[in-house]
Amino acid sequence: MTEENRQFGLSHRTELGGDEERIVLKNAWPEVVGLTAEDAEKRIKEDKPEAHVQVVPPNHIVTADYNEGRVRIFIDLSGRVFKAPVVG
């Protein structure tokens, strides 16, 4: 999967047994921007129940490693999501 697909939650196609099947990979949640961290986590878990969700407070430093099981929720001073959470 390309970095662009990871970042924007795009899908890809695969062929199984001669029939084309569309597999949608949900990797970004722009719809949760503005929600509380708690509400955003609930929404993310609906799409990716196995995700390890991390809430990141303002001005907090995070590692740059990629982890396909992790979704970080960046919140502002009011506790609201200010950046679309993505897998990684």
Automatic annotation (TrEMBL):
Coiled coil: none annotated. One of its GO terms (biological process) is response to wounding. Keywords: Protease inhibitor, Serine protease inhibitor. The keyword Disulfide bond does not apply. InterPro entries: Prot_inh_pot1, Prot_inh_pot1_sf. GO terms for molecular function: serine-type endopeptidase inhibitor activity. It holds the Pfam family potato_inhibit. Belongs to the protease inhibitor I13 (potato type I serine protease inhibitor) family. This is Potato inhibitor I family.
